[in-house]
Amino acid sequence: NTSLLVLFLCRFKTFPCAAVEVKNEPILGFREGSKERLELEKALQNLKGKTEEIPCVVGNEEVWTKDIRYRLSPFNHSHKVSKFCYADKELINKAIEASVAARREWDLKPVADRAQIFFKAADTISGPKRADVLAKTMIGQGKTVVQAEIDAAAELIDFFRFNAKHAMELEQQQPLDSDGSTNTMLYRGLEGFVAAVAPFNFTAIGGNLAGTPAIMVRCQVLFILYSALCNTGCLINRKITMLMLHKSSIITFKRLWKQVAQNLDIYRNFPRVAGECGGKNFHFVHKSAEVRSVVTGSIRSAFEYGGQKCSACSRMYVPDSLWPQIKQQLLDVLRQIKVGDVSAESFASFSRSRLNAYQRLTDSKDPEIFGPILTIYVYPEKDYKKVLHLIDNTSPYALTGAIFSQDKAVIDEAGKALRNAQPFGGARASGTNNKPGGPHYVLRWMSPQVFKQTHVPLTEWKYPYMG
Ligand SMILES: *[C@@H]1O[C@H](CO)[C@@H](O)[C@H](O)[C@H]1NC(C)=O
Ligand SMILES: *[C@@H]1O[C@H](CO)[C@@H](O)[C@H](O)[C@H]1NC(C)=O
């Protein structure tokens, strides 16, 4: 149908595609007496003893099922942070239908219009809602102010802005035209719906998982804002759009992938499964390393947020020559760290503990130890090449790592030896390396289509060689 086709192409081509300027959201300092600190203190005060109600939302309708649950504050189990409910099968199916029904129109909206919604959401979180989002992340997930700031403010805002920018800029990548015909790439959203399973530990990731696919697949703005404003524990029982996406432990991810595969025969499209799991961040210390950097970098990485980050350092490889010094300094710092402060307002603590953390760690069947535990392997200084090999082969994970050395040749050598051991975004058991926030991430949620339009009639069926 040519007229329809032309309409389509016009809309697409007349749309101005200038580069979109966005910057990283600044990370605020929260010094005593600062404006941001006062606002945060007020927001924390407002949440004292409060329980936020979080219904399921299907289409535009808020629904409560009978299966009511509570999210408890990790450092005060008598504080019910939120009340939510589990959706049942029927409700989930309804949500999928609502989402698929809305998709068609949404997909035809210019990307710039869709992106605008995300820019606006980012501005709202950066401005009027910032203190509230931070306070909820601190109380709901047990984060210190700086951990909440880098997650719920900086990273979430960056995700929204950069992904929207990248979606707009992708449209500039168009195929070449050839004689007598015009070629156009349409960056369509995926056909179907996306199901996102958010982790308990990151507001930014919850927001990104549910949000970014929506730039392409379907409008869920209320949902995104809402989820960005609550703690992420509730996301799992809320419907989202299109196929399957996950961020959690490797055991859960494998189970979901198998379940998806089992139903392969009934899908209209091949499902895309994207997952990011844990890591076992390694710190490789060469004899040429600067000891203070090793110590401070490792303390922060291993122990902030109680070691509950995918990037938490869990193994450290130290040359015997530096070990006495490093050990002494690690112990000195550890003695000064304030952990497990239960008052939500305290700004002095470095990390917080979860009340049931020890039990969770000792009961866990997960290969990943998810807590403030750092193992140290001391090696004979001259054997560092063997150690690089050992690091590459010790863990099934490949997410993050650090090389501490002041010797350029060693850094290059280690970089090559560990090339497959750490792409942030995940490889091996750490996930499907999607690079959230990078220019290629939005492509995961698209199904690009090329249109060729011929302007010259085709009059001859014979090829020239036929004479
Ligand atoms: C824990 O939460 C309960 C319920 O909101 C509250 O009454 C109590 O003061 C809190 N305890 C502490 C130590 O903050
Ligand atoms: C969140 O927690 C899970 C464990 O439940 C862990 O595997 C994952 O790496 C964590 N995510 C991040 C971004 O730290």
UniProtKB/TrEMBL annotation:
Keyword Signal: yes
PROSITE patterns: ALDEHYDE_DEHYDR_CYS, ALDEHYDE_DEHYDR_GLU
Residue intervals of the Aldehyde dehydrogenase domain: 73-222, 258-345, 367-447
Catalytic residues (positions): E276
One of the record's GO molecular function terms: L-glutamate gamma-semialdehyde dehydrogenase activity
Signal peptide positions (record): 1-19
Keywords of this entry: Oxidoreductase, Signal
InterPro entries noted in UniProt: Ald_DH/histidinol_DH, Ald_DH_C, Ald_DH_CS_CYS, Ald_DH_CS_GLU, Ald_DH_N, Aldehyde_DH_dom
Family per record: Belongs to the aldehyde dehydrogenase family.
Designated name of the protein: Aldehyde dehydrogenase 4 family, member A1
Organism expressing this protein natively: Sinocyclocheilus anshuiensis
